[in-house]
Design goal:
CATH architecture: Alpha-Beta Barrel
Strand content: 15-25%
Structural class: alpha/beta
Radius of gyration: 21 Å
Family: Belongs to the glycosyl hydrolase 1 family.
GO molecular function, one term: beta-glucosidase activity
Distance between the termini: 7 Å
Oligomer: single chain
CATH superfamily: Glycosidases
Protein name: Beta-glucosidase
Number of helices: 15
Helix content: 40-55%
Shape: globular
Keywords: Carbohydrate metabolism, Cellulose degradation, Glycosidase, Hydrolase, Polysaccharide degradation
Largest sheet: 8 strands, parallel, barrel
Bound molecules: the ligand CCOCCOc1ccc(-c2cn(C[C@@H]3NC[C@@H](O)[C@H]3O)nn2)cc1
CATH class: Alpha Beta
InterPro entries: GH, GH_1_N_CS, Glyco_hydro_1, Glyco_hydro_1_AS, Glyco_hydro_1_beta-glucosidase
Number of domains: 1
Length: 448
């Protein structure tokens, strides 16, 4: 009996990204991207892993799509590698790159699987990084050129488009903390990068509208429900600041057309506020059809005099965690969805990523009994269900991830997939969680 039935047209899917699964890093005319470069520098990535081969999805996409079909998964979110299309980032087009993605999209559609494409999932062509990357306004225009070609080539086939994945991670991890490509450690640069990414987002949405295409377009943000460690005034302020830093900076710009006043004041005092115009904010505020959210965990924060630049630090609580060290906190997904619904005019929401890394083992029968992942997924879907019952316009859920894959700085040490990948043989093993998710999709809901 289906105890928690989702709306009839609810989108059930899985998600991946190009650099994390494709491999073929230098095949068929693809240009170098910043993750090819970043992973080639010893010390950046766990055991110096890289995406040169990854899951070899570039060559194995048909058998992987057959797994999607076997599991009854009808929606698949993936990203296009910009440097496969424009090896130099702009100008000369690599037809083999276009042909690959056309084969991939047609193979999905042939199996009744709807594609959802992320245009930018962190893999900037290295040639563009060499002219300043996202700090350079020219890259904004080159992104529009890339998007326009993708809309012309695939706009009639693809119903869902996502301009950017997690601009906060791109700007902060890549340009403030330096733990992601291109490895810069400068908050002022990070916020300038965030602004130009948002500008490129708005320009591409406006372009999509002008082409009278029939699909829907949005952006994906990684968001977290922020809790203060105590009710002290300082900790409560720390939570408000971290919410502004991670969530409201992007949400307010995109959905309200202005950066939050409290954060503009703080960043100005810290001399890290980027330059921007009213026209910029108008472009960023271009209407989107849906907001994509990636939720993994909550953030519990406290005031910390020594924490530059925000005087906020995260607590590491002694609660159950995933292999990423992230607390398992499903209620945070409900809180986030309710807050978004209340504070951003009930916008349509897609959960474009939710999932968990665990240290999966293949047992003596050649199976992966990942009950811990099923429990994580079950508890988060229950919170999603509660949010829908309480009025949130949640339209779909893309599980992260379809395949075990390259988890950025963690390399292949973290397994998020519902399908196990043996990287030595490229053998796929469907985990128990995949069969469980297949039943959720078949029942359009969760049975007790
Ligand atoms: C110097 C301190 O550094 C701390 C690391 O801080 C983070 C924060 C956030 C993440 C993170 C990873 N993911 C999963 C990905 N989402 C997109 C898709 O590509 C998945 O692979 N989401 N957020 C990692 C690390």
């Amino acid at each position: 009996m289906v105890k928690y039935k989702f709306p009839d047209d609810f989108i059930w899917g899985v998600a991946t990204s190009a650099y994390q699964i494709e491999g073929a890093y230098n095949k068929d005319g693809k240009g170098e991207n910043i993750w090819d470069r970043f992973t080639s520098i010893p010390g950046n990535i766990y055991k110096n892993h890289n995406g040169n081969v990854a899951c070899d999805h570039y060559h194995l996409y048909q058998s992987d799509i057959n797994i999607l079909k076997e599991l009854g998964i009808k929606n698949y979110r993936f990203s296009i590698s910009w440097a496969r299309i424009f090896p130099d980032g702009y100008g000369k087009v690599n037809q083999k790159g276009i042909e690959y993605y056309r084969r991939l999209i047609n193979a999905l559609l042939d199996k009744g699987i709807q594609p959802a494409i992320t245009l930018y999932h962190w893999d900037l062509p290295q040639e563009l990084q060499d002219i300043g990357g996202w700090t350079n306004k020219k890259v904004v225009d080159y992104f529009v050129e890339y998007a326009e070609l993708m809309f012309k080539e695939f706009g009639d086939l693809v119903p869902i488009w996502i301009t950017h994945n997690e601009p906060w991670v791109v700007s902060i991890l890549g340009h403030a903390w330096g733990v992601h490509a291109p490895g810069i450690k400068d908050y002022k640069i990070a916020l300038k990068v965030a602004h130009n990414i948002l500008l490129s987002h708005g320009k591409v949405v406006k372009l999509y509208r002008s082409m009278s295409l029939k699909g829907k377009i949005g952006i994906t943000l990684n968001l977290s429900s922020i809790h203060s460690a105590t009710d002290s005034e300082k900790d409560l302020l720390a939570a408000k600041i971290y919410d502004g830093f991670m969530n409201r900076w992007f949400l307010d710009a995109i959905l309200k057309g202005s950066y939050p006043e409290d954060m503009k004041k703080l960043y100005n005092e810290l001399n890290i506020l980027p330059q921007f115009s009213d026209d910029d904010m108008k472009i960023i505020n271009e209407r989107i059809d849906f907001l994509g959210i990636n939720y993994y965990t909550r953030s519990v924060v406290k005031y910390d005099e020594n924490a530059y630049p925000l005087k906020v630090s995260m607590l590491d609580l002694d609660n159950p965690k995933t292999d990423m060290g992230w607390e398992i906190y499903p209620k945070g997904l409900y809180e986030l969805l309710i807050n978004l619904h209340k504070n951003y005019d009930g916008i349509d929401i897609l959960i474009t990523e939710n999932g968990a890394a665990f240290n999966d083992i293949v047992n003596y029968k050649g199976k992966v009994v990942d009950d811990y992942r099923i429990d994580y997924l079950y508890r988060h879907l229950l919170e999603a269900y509660r949010a829908i019952c309480d009025g949130v316009n949640l339209k779909g859920y893309y599980l992260w991830s379809f395949l075990d894959n390259f988890e950025w700085a963690e390399g292949y040490s973290k397994r998020f997939g519902i399908v196990f990948v043996d990287y030595n043989t490229q053998k796929r093993i469907i985990k128990d969680s995949a069969y469980w998710y297949s039943d959720v999709i078949k029942n359009n809901g969760i049975t007790e």
